[in-house]
Amino acid sequence: MSLKSYLSIYISKLIVKRQNKWMKNAIDLQQQIMRRLIKSSQKTLFGLNHNFSKIKNYEDFKANIPIREYEDFKYYIDKVINNEKNILWPGLPKYFAKTSGTTSGTKYIPITKQSIPNHIYSANQMLLNYIYEKKSGDFLNGYYLFLSGSPELTKNGEIFSGRLSGIVNHHIPFWIRKNYLPSFSTNCIKEWEKKIERVVKETENKNITIIGGIPPWIQMYFDLLIKKTGKNIKDIFPNLKLLCHGGVNFKPYKQILFDSIGKKIDTLETYPASEGFFAFQNISNKEGLLLQINSGIFYEFIPLEEYHKKNRKRISLKDVQLNVNYAIIINSNAGLWGYSIGDTVKFISLNPYKIIVTGRVKHFLSAFGEHVISNEIDTAITETCEKFKEVKITEFTVAPSVNSKSNLSCHEWYIEFKEEPKKLIEFEKILNNQLCKLNIYYKDLISGKILKKLKIKKLKKNSFINYMKSINKLGGQNKVPRLSNDRKIVENLEKYLN
């Protein structure tokens, strides 16, 4: 056993012990964080405008701090962009994480000196949990490959801006840096296809033990590597132990990734965003992400069915319930207040607090009143593929097809198959049945003949890669929405129909 492995096991025990202590006191910790955040920001412009000095408890907090999405926050963000100090948080943020917005163009999310540890140490904590689980840190002696955006940053006044993954790249701990891939110069390549080709060249002869990234881009890397070498991934990287993933639901990609590897390996799911690193899977073979309750973030939740109501219910961690879809709201030491990040989550455990990510507030399909969410779409396709062992899916998205009374409307599934079902009509039928089981409203619309059964539209190879390239969102942290309430995406996919 190497010294690095030995020390990692010792540290993992300390970290998990501390983590368990936090979890037993989660509600008190969250209240303490709320009070610290308010106290720290009383003299900021936001604090003065929202009576922070008068906030004594959570009821006061809700009465003075409204829920905001990015567009509603822009007044304050623009002031910070102009290098005005003490606006949302004392002083200036160290970075702006740039991310794509649906209605506001590029979003600039502040990252402060105080919030950086949340982004960095949460990932470290996840790996230490894995070492604790396996009672081994031997995989640390290999190389760690993380497919991410460019680490190049720009500077406006005193504030650096860039993609979150690029910012994090500048804060990689020393014990990881030496074995971290790709190299800085390769990571700076802006064109994703050229970047992946360089990554393949740079890594094919290395002892890779950990790979991380968004599943479709990991698959793209695997495809190029297999094409170049003619080998399965397990033969190229015999010591590959762990796949870390996030950004999209892993289930639809799991089998095709394992097929490319040539065997099953351990996987860990992460839940990072520009606004914070919120949760991670702390046990590799057990569903659920451990909520980061002691990381400078005070969480709030709104039941999804109330999110768009005027007098929506808003609760803290103390009042959450199992198996309810919540929009997640954060207040953080990055200066985000009552901020809706746009994601929906569901608690599957309250001791400790564990969540699964179920979708997006704005990414749902309810053109006919069915309100189908991403998690239901992902589960339906995954369970259907389990019944059709030959089927492998590269990517897919779902949209409504609205027709006249004489020709019933339906859901259209645009699917890029790597391996097609032998009986497509039967595949459609089973998929439709699975969705009916998961969503009672969809089932009622089908049985009431308001909707006809879903329709699959097959796409040519590389359709989604070409689509993402056409909108300048190929690679990095970009991903295709699983479903939409309109046909904007699928209209662009029509030209790729098989």
Report what the structure shows.
This protein is α/β, with parallel strands linked by helices and 498 residues long. The strands form four sheets. Strands 6-3-7-8-9-10-11-16-15-14-12-13 form a twelve-stranded mixed sheet, sandwiched between helices. The protein has a four-stranded mixed sheet with strand order 2-1-5-4. A three-stranded mixed sheet has the order 19-20-21. Among the domains are: 117-157 and 174-274; 364-496, GMP Synthetase, Chain A, domain 3 (2-Layer Sandwich), CATH 3.30.300. The chain has helices at 3-24, 26-40, 45-49, 58-64, 70-81, 116-134, 164-169, 174-177, 184-187, 192-203, 215-229, 233-236, 251-261, 374-387, 424-438, 440-447, 463-470, 488-493; strands at 95-100, 106-111, 143-146, 154-156, 159-162, 180-181, 208-213, 242-245, 266-273, 276-280, 289-291, 297-303, 315-316, 325-332, 339-350, 353-360, 364-365, 372-373, 392-401, 410-419, 455-458.
Annotation, overall tally of beta strands: 21
| Low-confidence blocks of residues | none
Count of alpha and pi helical runs: 18
Oligomeric description of these chains: single chain
Shape: globular
Helix and strand composition category: alpha/beta
Radius of gyration: 23 Å
**Strand share of the residues?**
15-25%
How confident overall, as mean pLDDT?
92
If strands are numbered along the chain, what order do they take across the biggest sheet?
6-3-7-8-9-10-11-16-15-14-12-13
* Separation, N- and C-terminal Cα atoms: 53 Å
Fraction of helical residues: 25-40%
Biggest sheet features = 12 strands, mixed
